[in-house]
Every structure is written in structure tokens, then in C-alpha cells.
Amino acid sequence: MDKVMIDLETDLKVMRECCRSGKTKELSWRRSQLKGLQTFLKENEVEIFRALRDDLGKHYVEAFRDEVGLIKKSLNLALKDLQKWMSSREAKLPIFALLSHAELVPEPLGLVLVISPWNFPLALSLEPLLGAIAAGNAVVLKPSELAPACSSLLFNTLPNYLDNETIKVIEGGPAVGEQLLFKKWDKIFFTGSARVGRIVMSAAAKHLTPVTLELGGKCPAVLDSLSWSWDKEVAVNRIIGAKYGSCAGQACVSVDYLLVEKAFSSAVVELMKVLIKKMYGDNPRESQSVGRIVNKRHFLRLKNLLTDKMVKDSIVYGGSMDEDSLFIEPTILVDPPRESTIMTEEIFGPLLPIITLDKIEDSIDFINARPKPLAIYAFTKNETFRRRMVSQTSSGAVVFNDAIIQYAADTIPFGGIGESGIGNYHGKFSFDTFSHYKAVARRSFLTDFWFRFPPWNNYKLELFETAYNYDYFGMLLIILGLKRSRRRFDRRVVKSVEWKRLENLRLTKADDSQLQIGINNGSSSSKYSNDYCLLGIVWKGKKIYREAMIKMLGNLWITKGELTAKEIGENKYFFSFSDKEDFDRIKAGRPCCFDRNLVVLKEFDMDSMEPKEVNFKHEELWIHVIGLPIKLMERETAKVIGNTTDWFITVDGDGGDLKGKYTRIRVLIDLTKPLKRGIMIHMDDGHIKWISFHYERLAKFCFRCGIHEQSCNQPCLDENGTEVQKQYGAFLIASQRRKAVEIKFEGHGQSQWKNSDVHS
Amino acid sequence: MIIVSAGLFKDCGSSIVGVGLGDTLAYHHTYKINQVSFSSSIPSSYYCCATLSKTMEEAKQTFDVDKAAVLVKELRKTFSSGKTKSYEWRMSQLESISKMIDEKEKEIIEALHKDLSKPELEAFISEISMTKSSCKLALKELKHWMMPKKVETSMATYPSSAKIVSEPLGVVLVISTWNFPFLLSLDPVIGAIAAGNAVVLKPSEIAPATSSLLARLLVEYADESAIRVVEGAVAETSALLEQKWDKIFFTGGARVGRIVMTAAAKHLTPVTLELGGKCPVLVDSNVDLQVTARRIVAGKWACNNGQACIGVDYIITTKDFAPQLIDALRSVLEECFGKDPMESKDRSRIVNSFHFMRLVNLLDEDKVSDKIVVGGQRDRSHLQIAPTILLDVPDDSRIMQEEIFGPLLPITTVEKLEDAFDMINRKPKALAAYLFSDDEQIERKFVQNVSAGGIAINDTILQLTVPTLPFGGVGESGMGSYHGKFSFDAFSHNKAVLYRSFAGESPTRYPPYTPGKQKQMKALISGDVFNIMLALLGWFKD
After folding, report:
1. Which of B303, B501, B510, B524 to mutate to test the interface with A (most CBs of A within 10 A)?
2. A Gene Ontology MF term for this entry (chain A) (predicted)?
């Protein structure tokens, strides 16, 4: 044994080397191996039939139907479609991967282990083997020792037809199996029982090896009360074939038990008796058409299933056994106790319990109360019942009006779920089981989307968002600068987090939520000097992010001297400046916006004023007066026009400076009244001209009534009480004028505003 | 040894904050000192990227096996009621999650910032919008995905029709990790919901803010009878793993992956394991240097500061080309993160001091520390390490053996680029492999010879963003895949449904067996209609 294992160790090393060399990946290698399998089947048909007869007493027609023929069919398919399977599959790509190309490339997993069972020792060895070969793997096959003739046939003869460097057959019992499981594989394909399946999967976990487990389960057959006698006969024939016909019921897909309606059951039993006789004759033992039980242990296991008196009493047909020839007669039981072993364990033999139900629909609950089977066979013509059967039960497969035949279909996956297994195979699915689909994406160096790389800003964010939404047109607009960034969040969000944290800390030390923003820290010890103070209110109904705003303003204002901020009420703040220059500059720089909400700033005299006295209804804004004839672009005209609003303050520029695209005037505006969109001017020559107003840094306002958001009481109604149509729009927002902003960004190094333009 | 991290708490002066391996930022007000033994002799597998780290105390263990069992029972009840299977339920849950992402964007970004100092734009790109788009895709395609697939049937089962029906697996467990705590939690959950399962999500305790946010948000937005979040560390996870699930989806390190799979084997539960690995980048000398450098930087430092399972781990290039590449990388780094990268807010931080120390240890190894060509600065209090490039690190050093999972980038040089293939293949299979080259020959060889979960040519990370490509590893880097339709498939069982009528019955199938029947069968299996006719007439010759 040890020697075998040492040999194995070196063998495996060689196999791995072969894998790495890429030999098995070649189409020619795969083809030649599959052809080798074909020749093996052709040249050894007689030996195979003999081995199957020796191991399991299978009739050669049955052997051909269930094993040799099926493998031949699968080989034909694999050889025909191999090239198609091996070719890579194109995948669609999103836009920002322009000039790229993506595909799925199947690649072999490497070195795989196939462990096969004894009930179909040839089919269940070769079916996965051919899948593994088709996928380009090196394979070790361990056939079951319980079918010794087949095992030795595979061990002795199969290597003559295959590449021995990469495909090995290893014979042996559980000890060898265990040794094999210790090794590192790239895939383990196991067919057998759930108990061993667990062992296999645990062993595989050690090396993170993927597994396919083909287990069994109690596959139910459901027989609806069919009215036509032809249908009845066909259905019962198929059930009998699937129970007794395939290796004497020793198949993972064979019918385990039968569910019928109570009223229908006696008719079914009678029909079965007749049809069993027709197939197997009066003396089934003499007929060559019933397989044998594989060995004594299983024979005894089956015998034990019937020892229970209650179970024994339920036998209505058959029941005879012959231990010497390991023969069990096709047996029918009606309503054995549901908790008896025969109804809780997989039977795996020619015993068929029939369970009677009041209504055939109850079968769904009956099935769902048990572990998920590998297959459900339902014989019915009732369309609703069929649909329910598919959607309300869970199993590896559902077959209507037939049984076992799904094993022969290449286009549907064969495999279990839950207790009946993991993974699937057959046809193309076999290839997939032994392949890894490698995702391959290709790019050229030509296109590169700059927005994929830091430093991050909102522009890039917007691009990403449109790209992920496949909004190609939107992306184009953004790139061309035609679409404004809608997104509002930026560093402020995160800043606020830091801020909050810091603030929390301070709170534990001091009981004062006063926040100091000392930028040019000269003397941070002083309290706010009362010389230059501003009172600010954020023109917004909801409470705003205090920390974020204060921090933002701190960043925006970049004072030379010290700036202190204090919250004095909801959305109300008190700012004091130590430096007059700062104070004036901020005052002149109004209006100030935060998150497109107007922050109304008012001068405040600490000695004489109470915050409540301050009227926040007005704010100074810059207006662009557009459409004035050049001749009229004068200080006087500006003043006249400005006074049509609440209060004219000043006009930007003087003399010749005034003549340009527009006249820029500063006015005081009542925030509770609608914005003025423009004004009519009677010209000297008699005709009337419309002069429009655009507002700089306009905060959120109502598009219906033109009032600043907070003051607008929705819904907007006119005098008659009807809702106003949309009268205003974003066209009232003036394009940004850099000149007007007197705040310098550069020179202080504190600003983190370089990438952000949202505060306009 | 006590790891002391003052960080933001510097100002407090008096308090010392001990950092356990699991509890990073959860100590705002409760200061506790944990003793952490920490030595470099910990076996290498311990250092896997996203582990269920060991918490030192299990003081208040509230979620135990019994609770877990009750939880699973409840969910199973919901599942068997069939509620989660309906198209409407799936759609409503997905819509709700999509709404949640829209409405809670700010909170999510804050949580990510708390956990990883993730720059908000990066958080938006790599987590929020990825999750959102995967949710949107599911919403858009769900009907299509759920549709049974009709397949043709062959002569062997004639006459018949067949289809493949996707059915939900049942009650599934999603265990996610800390490096992309939002995306890697919700992306699988979206798949699980789309497929009609009941889900339990266990987010990583190493990203506590996101974990608790997810717990809070999903209660608010999702159907609590079928979608649950269990917060916790090792004890809670073990309790969960004891239960029988119908699928376990795990993202994290290979070490824990093994534990998960072993636990799953007990109940024959299928698993999807999304692990990591050392993802190599191969750089040819004929590339567009600027673009290459940028894309490498994007795949390393702009991707959660190197703490990503598909992030760039190391570079292989030719000896002559290495200096040029380093120069290019250096200038791109400056472009992206400024002159002083330690000050840059555009990079995430290292998740906790355990991982910080791990990275520092990698860097301080004898044979390694003198190979640094760019960066190397570190700041323990802010858990930051500057983008660091190392040249020609010996292959047996730990940094070349373990997954780095941090802002360190070793460059290995070879004489000929082809030598690199073998070098890559000798290491365990990675989750991703990258190649930069203008040579189609090399490209073809690379795709053919290098085995990895996914491959991107002339770019990094790209393959992850493509919903039409499966995302998943092979070998040491995991099993199973997801994203897009593949997520749906990962949480679905493809049930084969075969319809036969009672017509078309042939006695060939049944005993008594005769040689004539064998001939007919042979003809049937050959699939040739003409042969079948011959056989039925008794004229078919084998």
C-alpha cells in the first residue's frame, strides 16, 4: 500500500507538470483522448458486458441502454461540439471601457479526481471522465471497489487507449480513497452517498478544492388518476422500468416510492402486477432481465428494511429473496408506516412502497416535508398541477410523464440540490463543471478616462455616475461642459464628520459648543472681540448641518485675523472678526450661500443690539441688467433701474467700465417678495424694450412664484386662489463673475476649495 | 505588548486607547485596554486579508447557537411560505434597497469614512455606485433572468420538451468583509434577493460603522421576515456556521474560507468563496508609460489604498525598464496625491492597527527595508503608510509570499518577460492578473498560460466593473463567481424540467430484452433518423 502511495505521489507530480506544460489544453490532445475512449468502448464491448454481468447481473441490453450507449452518445456530442465549447465567449462592456473588449475564456482547472460508484460502474466513471478530458484536465479516476470486474477492466484496459501521463486509473477501497482525498486537487467529482459526500467535501475544504457531488435521495414518483387506459399503462410501464429496470432499482435516479390517490391505488397495484409479469415473466429470477443486488451487505440492508412487521404486512406483491444469487424479486408495498426505515432512507433496491394520499395535490406537501430529491417524476395531464409541481417543490430535476430519461438528455443539467448533491454535469454542463471561466478584459492605451484617477472632484463623480447609469448622452454633455453638476456633496460631508468627532471631544471637556476657527493663529486665547460682528441666518426651513457650514465658511473666508463662530439659535449664527479688513471684505462679498441656501449676513453691534432685533428679510445681491442699449449704460440709468427693486446700493464700475455685456448693479432685495425678472423701458423712439435681470449667486427659490424657498408657502396660489403655473426658472441665475468675488483663494494655503465650484 | 493608538484622541491627553484586533473605532467613550499579543512568528496564513479577526473578550455574547437556530427557523418559515419566490417580492425588495442607497448616501459615505477614511468620491465610485448599478441591473433584468430557459431535446428522449427553471436555493448566509464593507455586503445580498432567497447578512466587525449602518438600514428598508443582518465577530459567525444553510457566500481570507467550507460540508451546503491572492501586474517595455502608470496607481492606491482583493499586489517587469516605470509611477503619484502623500485626503487609511503593524512588519523585514525606492513613511496615529514602491525584493521575503493588502508595491525584475509566466504560475492562483503590453503575441500567451480568476490587459480592476463578466477566483483565490446574471445564478438552482407525453412509447426500453431491442437502441443513440427507421424495420446493421 505504501509503495502504491509513494508511486502515486510521484505520478501526481508528473501529472501536474504535464498540466503546467499546457499539453492537456490542446484541442488535439482532447480530441485524441476522447477518440481513445470511443475506441475503448468499441473494442471492449463484450468485456464490458461481461464485467457488468459479473458485478451486477445486468442484461447486456440494459447495460447498453444505461451505460455503453449513453457514453457513446455523450462522446459523439463532445467530439462534435468540443471546438464550440472551447471557444471564448464575448461579453458586453459599459461605455467607460470604450475601445475595450471582454470575453470569457474557459480554462481547465488542472488536476482533477473522479470518484465513481458501483451501480453504473462504467457510465458514472466515464461520463465525468470525458467531461474532464473535454475541458482539458489531467484526471485520476477511482472506480468503486464494489464493482471489482469493472474496476479492474478500467484499470487494466482503459490505459491502453489513453495518454498515461495525464490520465490515471487507481484501484482500491476506502483506504486508497482516503489517501487520495488528502492530496491537493483542483476539483473533486464524486458520485455516491451523502455520507461519503460529506467526508469528501470536508477533505476538499482543506485545499479549497471545489467539488461536484452527485448524491442520491428518495426520488418520488407521483401518479395522478389518469383516465385513459393507454396513459395508465404507459405510466405504469415507465414506473416499473424506472424502479426495477435500471440495475434493480440501485440507481440514484430510480423511482424510490410512488404517490397515488387512495381511490386509484388498487387499480394501480393490479395493473402493476400484470405489467411486471409481462416484462419479467412468471419467474423473474429466471429471466435475465432483473439485475442483482451488488453485494451481501446491501442485500442484508434491503432485507432488513422488510423485517419490521408493519412493513412486512404491507407487501402486496413479490417479496421473495435469494441470498445466494443476491436476487430480490420486484416487490410492491402499499402504505408501509411513514416513519419506518424504508420510508426514511434511500431504498436503492427493487422495493417499491406505494403511499396513498387523499388528494394527489397533497403530494407536494409530502415531498416538501422530506430532503430534496435528485428528481421528481410526475405522471399527470393536469396543467395546473404540473405548474405547481415545478414552482412549489425543489429537486434536481422534474420530469413529467416519464422517469430516468432525463439522464439521457444532454441539454439539461443533471445534478442535485440540498441533500441530493452540489453541481451538475452532462453535455456542455460537464465541460463547464471541469472548467474555470476566466474573465478577460482588454483595453488599448488609446482611450483613457481621466476621471478614473484621483485627485477626486465632483466633476469626476458626475462622470462616473452617468457612466454607471449607461447615460451616454449625459456623459457627453458633461464632458463638453454643457451639463452642470447636480451633485451636491463634496468634502463638506466628510469634513463634518471629522468636525463632529472633534466637537464631541470638546464637549466632554467643556460644556460649551463654541467653535473657534483660528486660521492665522496669533493669539488664540482671546474671546471674540466685539468690534466687528456679523449675524447670519441660513435662509432655509430645515435645520442645516451646523458643523459643515461653519467649517465651510471658515474655509471660504480665509481670514487674516481670527474668526469666531457661535450658534445662537436655529440656523442663526454669530460671527466675530478680529480684523476690520476681513470684516469689510466679507460684508462686501455678500451674498453668501451654503448648499444653495442663502446665508443672510447682517452687521451687528454687540453693545446696543439684541439678535432678535435684526431683520433678516433683506439681503444685498448683484444683478446683471441685460439688454440695455449701450448708450443707456450709465450710472444714472442703473440707479433708476436699481430703485425699482427695494433699494439701489451701487453699480459696478464707472464711466466706460459700465459699457459692456451688461450693467452690474448691487441692490437690496426683499426676500419675501417675488424676484423681479426684468423691466420694460420706453425708449425715446417710442417702442418698448424688455430688460432682463439675472441674479448672481442666487439661492434656491420657488420656480412658481419666484420667492425664496423658505418664504414661499406651497402651494403657490395667486389672488384668485388658483395654483400659479411655473413662471420662473434657472435662467434667472447669472453666470459667475470671478471679478465680483473679492476673496482670494491663493496665498493662504488653507483653502481646500481648489476643485470645488458648488458654492456659487 | 499593548498597541496604543491615540489618533484623534490626542487631545484627550489622559486616555490610552487599546486596540483589539477587532474593535477599531468602537471606543469613542468607553476606553478599554486590551492586551494583544503580537509577534512576527504568527503563521503566515494568519495574515489573510479580510479575516474574522479574533476579538479578545467575549464578554457580552448575545448571539449564540440557539439564537441562530431560531433565526434560521424563522427565515425558513418565511421561505417555505413561498413569499420570497414571487417576482413582486423580489422587485419590491430590490427597489427598496435601491431607494435606500439613494436616500442614505450621505450616511453610507460617513460610515465608510469612519471605518476606512475612504475618500468620498472613491467611496461613491467603488461602493455606492457599483452597488447601485448592480441593483439597477437586477431590477431591469430580473424578469428576463427568472424566465425558464427552453432547451432543445435530442433524439434520445424523443418526443419531449425541456426547460431549465431557476429556483431559489432557500435560506442563504452572506458573510462579507471590511475592505469594501458596503459593496461586498450588499452585492451578494442583491443577488440572493433577486434569486428569491431568504438572506442573513453578517457584515464584518472590523468595519463597525458600516456594519451597524447596514443592520439599521436593512431593518428599515427591507422585509425583516426574510432579510436579516447579524452583527458580530467570531462567536457570532461560528454560531451561524453551525446552522444548516442552503448556500453560504463568503468573502474574505483563504484561512477562514477553509473553515467556512468545512462547516458547510457538514450540511452539504454549496459555497461560493471569494478570496484574495497576490494579483500580479506584468509590464512590458513597449507600453505607453504615462497611461500604464496611471492605471497601476488607480488599481493600487486609488483602490482602498491597496486593501482590495483584486488590487495590484506586485509588478513584474524587465530589468531595463524598471527605472523608467518607477519614475513614471512616482510622477503619477505626485499628480494624484500631491507632494506629500501623507497629507492627501484622497487615500483610505489602513483599517486598523493590527493591519498597520502587519504592513510595517512586511516593510521592516531585513532583506526588504533597504529596497524602498519611493515612499516608506508611516504614521501610526493616523494609520497611514505612504505609497511605497520597492525594487527587487527577494522572492522568499514575506512581502513576496503573502498577500500584501496595503499600499506597498514591490517590483520584481526579470530578463525576459516570458520568464514571468512561470513565476506567476508557481505562486497560488490569484484572483486577477494584469498585463500591460502592446505586443499581441505576449498578450495571447498571457491569456493562454496564466491562470487567474480574471485577467485584464492594459488595465487594472476593469474586469470587476463589467456586469457581463463573472467575478470570482480559482484555486486559492476562491470558487464560484458572481456579478450581474452570475449573482443570480450563484444563488439559484438550475432545475431541469423535462416534459414527455404518453405518446411515443416504444417497447424497446422494457424487458424482456432482446438483441433486436439493442439494435434499435443503438440506432436511437446514433441520433440518425434514417438509422432509426431501418432499425424499426429490422434492417439496421450495427
Report:
1. B510
2. aldehyde dehydrogenase (NAD+) activity
